[in-house]
Write a structure and sequence with these properties.
- This protein is about 10% helix and about 50% strand.
- It has one domain: Outer membrane phospholipase (ompla), Chain C, CATH 2.40.230.
- It is mostly beta strands.
- The termini are close together.
- It has a 12-stranded antiparallel beta barrel with strand order 1-2-3-4-5-6-7-8-10-11-12-13.
């Protein structure tokens, strides 16, 4: 790609999504395959470029926070970038591939985890129930066999929000319906350590509205997702996805989230390939 053209495109979209009209953007998360394990073939004319990826804008419908009853609609930047197939950015995540073999890719990863504000879960929560945004660091590993892929990501909290661990496991398959349309079903689950669960689902002693709740560690969320890509033109894709998740066990029993154990999110957007 022409580097100057790419820089202008990136700056243009960043300027768009930071204007007041887009001030309430939220993280779009991931749909489909993670960028570090993606098995979709890259076109011949893009293979020789150091930078390869997608950038665009997507409309997102999602709960305000995990366990929240209210859903919001917002616009956000959809960014997936890989540099020399080693360093990558995927929306709220950044990482580096340290090991690359035929059946294994692994490395380091970090992400920005949105917090929880007093009005996000239930209307009877107060300022004391807020959780700040967190930066988490960890490791990832993934494997792909033909069009089947399996991934694992483990994160540790940094800062004052929590010092717990979280592990996310996913598996999916790429269906190429035709040369222009692809479907990717994904299933997965998330495990949290006691410290992580305490921060996001626990209720401290003496709470004004809820009984004390000590959330233990374990598998706390399972999800199923279906994402799609439709090639509009040589370098343009229409992307979409829907995801259903269910809180389990210690998370589902928390007074903060027990009324909204099943949650849904969806998004649709247009991205430019470079």
């Amino acid at each position: 790609m022409d580097f100057t053209l790419g820089r202008l495109a990136v700056l243009g979209i960043l300027a768009l999504v930071t204007t007041p009209a887009f001030a309430q953007t939220v993280d779009l998360g991931r749909t489909g395959q993670p960028v570090y394990i993606e098995s979709v073939p890259v076109e011949d004319e893009r293979k020789n470029d150091a930078w390869v990826g997608q950038i665009g804008v997507a409309l997102n419908l999602s709960p305000r926070a995990l366990g929240a009853g209210e859903h919001v609609t917002s616009l956000g930047l959809d960014l997936r970038v890989s540099y020399k197939d080693t360093f990558f950015i995927e929306n709220n995540k950044i990482g580096a591939v340290l090991t690359s073999r035929r059946l294994l890719r692994a490395g380091v990863i970090a992400r920005f985890n949105d917090g929880r504000r007093d009005e996000l879960i239930r209307p009877d929560l107060g300022p004391a129930d807020e959780i700040g945004d967190a930066v988490e660091i960890g490791l990832f590993a993934g494997t792909s066999l033909y069009k089947l892929f399996l991934t694992a990501e483990a994160y540790m909290g940094t800062g004052e929000v929590h010092d717990g661990f979280q592990v996310e496991l996913e598996g999916g398959y790429l269906f190429e319906v035709n040369s222009r349309f692809k479907l990717v079903p994904v299933i997965g689950g998330t495990w949290g350590s006691p410290d992580y669960m305490k921060a996001y689902f626990g209720v401290p002693q003496g709470h004004a509205r809820f009984p004390t709740y000590r959330a233990g560690g374990g598998l706390y969320e399972v999800h199923a997702e279906l994402s799609s890509e439709h090639r509009l033109a040589k370098n343009w894709l229409l992307k979409g996805g829907v995801r259903l998740s269910k809180l389990k066990d210690n998370a589902a029993l928390s007074p903060l989230a027990r009324e909204h154990r099943v949650q849904a999110r969806a998004q649709i957007g247009v991205v430019w390939l470079f």
